[in-house]
């Protein structure tokens, strides 16, 4: 057995098994997130939501998937065919690749690398390329305008997200995601860093193009924006990528501020619940807030979106970063 785990082929097989053990539940979660969103929005608007396909409409995600698979993929005549089809695949692949470093429990990560947070930041930064390529390759003014909006939006909010992450890293002294969770044994970072938690969560809404920051796909002015020309499975891959990114950002929020797999209080019956269950419950709470925000707030104007990112979040997160560094230095808590 030791020979198997030390042999390159054995390591490869083990890595594939670990990846499938994470990605299969993730894809099922993405499918049922679409169902949950429709149900929660329906409840908030006093409607029923999906209730025909299967008991309580539980088979609706599979019906939608079959419908997408059966439809024809239409490529516009003036589009760049190769890039047009590559863009949704890139978006979906990046959404999956980011999960390689997410620890679901202590030691439960496909790759528990020491620069996990940098890896995540790099993957999230690459995500904008799928949108830009889709907008340009579609050869449509609406799609191109949506892509330009998305590029500016994602770059703007990644700056403040970066300062928030640096603030957390100052308190931990490590770029390892597992170490960040372990550092919250006594108190979750959401308590001492609550303003940064708020900024980070709102920035994740903008980063994932979710309401009220869904400007790149504004139906009222851009007729669905960067994926206006997409259909069938190419549209479904964008859809899956967006919802996988929502789950990813909720997982990152959980790791940075909500104690990851740690229970709220280390006493019975809280510590009887397995770590992965706490992790999933916290992700579900964050996803519920994503949907709640969509049902509650109207879409921002583009100038309001930019002003919030550059004139409010950026100076405030920078000031809080300096304040945190000063407090840690004066109290002697600053990690070496």
From TrEMBL:
Protein name listed in UniProt: NADH-quinone oxidoreductase subunit H
Top EC category: translocase
Family matches, as Pfam families: NADHdh (PF00146)
GO molecular function: NADH dehydrogenase activity; oxidoreductase activity, acting on NAD(P)H, quinone or similar compound as acceptor; quinone binding
Keywords, sorted A to Z: Cell membrane, Membrane, NAD, Quinone, Translocase, Transmembrane, Transmembrane helix, Ubiquinone
Protein function: NDH-1 shuttles electrons from NADH, via FMN and iron-sulfur (Fe-S) centers, to quinones in the respiratory chain. The immediate electron acceptor for the enzyme in this species is believed to be ubiquinone. Couples the redox reaction to proton translocation (for every two electrons transferred, four hydrogen ions are translocated across the cytoplasmic membrane), and thus conserves the redox energy in a proton gradient. This subunit may bind ubiquinone.
Localization annotation: Cell membrane; Membrane
Catalytic activity: a quinone + NADH + 5 H(+)(in) = a quinol + NAD(+) + 4 H(+)(out)
GO terms, biological process: aerobic respiration
Family: Belongs to the complex I subunit 1 family.
Membrane topology: Multi-pass membrane protein
EC number: 7.1.1.-
Principal place of residence: membrane
Classification via InterPro entries: NADH_UbQ_OxRdtase_su1/FPO, NADH_UbQ_OxRdtase_su1_CS
GO cellular component terms, A-Z: plasma membrane
Subunit (UniProt): NDH-1 is composed of 14 different subunits. Subunits NuoA, H, J, K, L, M, N constitute the membrane sector of the complex.
Transmembrane segment boundaries: 12-32, 82-104, 116-137, 157-175, 187-206, 277-297, 309-328
């Amino acid at each position: 057995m030791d020979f198997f785990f030390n042999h390159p082929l054995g390591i490869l097989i083990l890595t594939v098994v670990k990846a499938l053990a994470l990605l299969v539940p993730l894809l099922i979660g993405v499918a049922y997130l679409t169902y949950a969103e429709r149900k929660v929005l329906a409840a908030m608007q006093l409607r029923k939501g999906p209730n025909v396909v299967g008991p309580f409409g539980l088979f609706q995600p599979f019906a939608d998937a079959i419908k997408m698979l059966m439809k024809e993929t239409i490529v516009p005549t003036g589009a760049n065919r190769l890039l047009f089809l590559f863009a949704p695949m890139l978006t979906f692949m990046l959404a999956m690749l980011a999960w390689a470093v997410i620890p679901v429990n202590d030691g439960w990560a496909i790759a528990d690398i020491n620069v996990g947070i940098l890896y995540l930041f790099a993957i999230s930064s690459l995500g904008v390329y799928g949108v830009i390529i889709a907008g340009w390759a579609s050869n449509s003014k609406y799609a191109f305008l949506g892509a330009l909006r998305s590029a500016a939006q994602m770059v703007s909010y990644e700056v403040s997200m970066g300062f928030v992450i640096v603030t957390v890293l100052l308190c931990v002294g490590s770029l390892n995601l597992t170490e960040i969770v372990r550092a919250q044994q006594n108190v979750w970072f959401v308590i001492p860093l609550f303003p940064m938690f708020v900024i980070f969560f709102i920035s994740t809404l903008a980063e994932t193009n979710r309401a009220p920051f869904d400007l790149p796909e504004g139906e009222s002015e851009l007729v669905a924006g960067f994926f206006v020309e997409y259909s069938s499975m190419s549209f479904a891959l964008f859809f899956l990528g967006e919802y996988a990114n929502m789950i990813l950002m909720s997982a990152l929020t959980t790791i940075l501020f909500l104690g990851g797999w740690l229970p709220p209080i280390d006493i019975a019956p809280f510590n009887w619940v397995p770590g992965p269950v706490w992790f999933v419950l916290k992700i579900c709470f964050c996803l519920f807030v994503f949907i709640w925000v969509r049902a509650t707030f109207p879409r921002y104007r583009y100038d309001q979106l930019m002003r919030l990112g550059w004139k409010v979040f950026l100076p405030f997160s920078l000031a809080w970063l300096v304040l945190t560094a000063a407090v840690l230095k004066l109290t002697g808590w600053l990690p070496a």
